[in-house]
Amino acid sequence: MVYRVTVKNSKLTGGMRVERGMSVDVVTNSMSNPVITNGGQVVADAFMRIYGIDIRQIGALNMAYLDVERIG
Question: How many Å apart are CA 61 and CA 39, to the nearest integer?
Answer without folding.
Answer: 9
